[in-house]
Specification:
CATH topology: Creatine Amidinohydrolase
CATH architecture: Alpha-Beta Complex
Bound molecules: 2-amino-4-trifluoromethylsulfanyl-butyric acid, cobalt (II) ion
Structural class: alpha+beta
Number of domains: 1
Largest sheet: 4 strands, antiparallel
CATH superfamily: Creatinase/methionine aminopeptidase superfamily
Strand content: 15-25%
Number of strands: 15
Mean pLDDT: 97
Amino acid sequence: MTHTIKSAEDIEKMRIAGKMAADCLTMIGEHVKPGVTTGELDKLCHDFIVNDCKAIPACLGYRGFPKSVCTSIDHVVCHGIPHENQVLKEGQILNIDVTVIFEGWHGDTSKMYIVGQKVKPPAERLVQKAQEALYLGIDMVKPGLKLGDLGFAIEQFAKQNHYSSVRDYCGHGIGQKFHEDPMVNHFGTPGTGMELVPGMTFTIEPMLNQGTHICRVLADDWTVITKDRKLSAQWEHTILVTPTGREVLTYREGEEVNLVRAT
Ligand code: MF3
Ligand code: CO
Ligand code: CO
């Protein structure tokens, strides 16, 4: 497996792309409510990226994906396609996944939203624990860490909380390519896998399921759902390995100070 090392100039562009993707997630938050369609959310994100950021929505046309962001509701694990007739309902959990290209460089991040005020406690807990799984992975990142250790820790955390960690989809190296080496699995064997070095950039994007980790893809060839139709939640950040640890390129404003760390 090969990987690219980013220069100081590359990283500067990735910081900008990362901030744009993060700002898009912040912008869309107030629009997520019952009655809104995922098609409307997609258009708002598209226009923000194109008009406000003067950047490119990476998902649009990527391997034939028809929209600018992914919107994944409830038992949809990832890669949900926004639709003009898909109306959000009270109590649903929604992931919006945004990837921006700025001057050729990518920033990729996603977060969960709760639709309305009346979410069920089990759904809320899943959303929270999936975010903690991401943060615990981020906290491990530093030169010398092996990716098998990262994946193992995330899956262990999922299991301890009575969830499963999805195996069919993973984090990935990122840079001038949307998806590049290394593959960043959210499961693994301690002491194995690629060893991190400064200048690597990749995503961590754990998907935690209430039931089985097994997924299936719908006939649209994109939408990934849980085989048992139980809920799934995902959060994602783009991360740079620094000489002393890590820099998260897609933190939203205020996120770092408000972090709820896994215990
Ligand atoms: N943003 C997703 C990821 O985290 C990939 C979406 S590909 C698309 O890797 F084509 F569905 F947009
Ligand atoms: Co990604
Ligand atoms: Co993504």
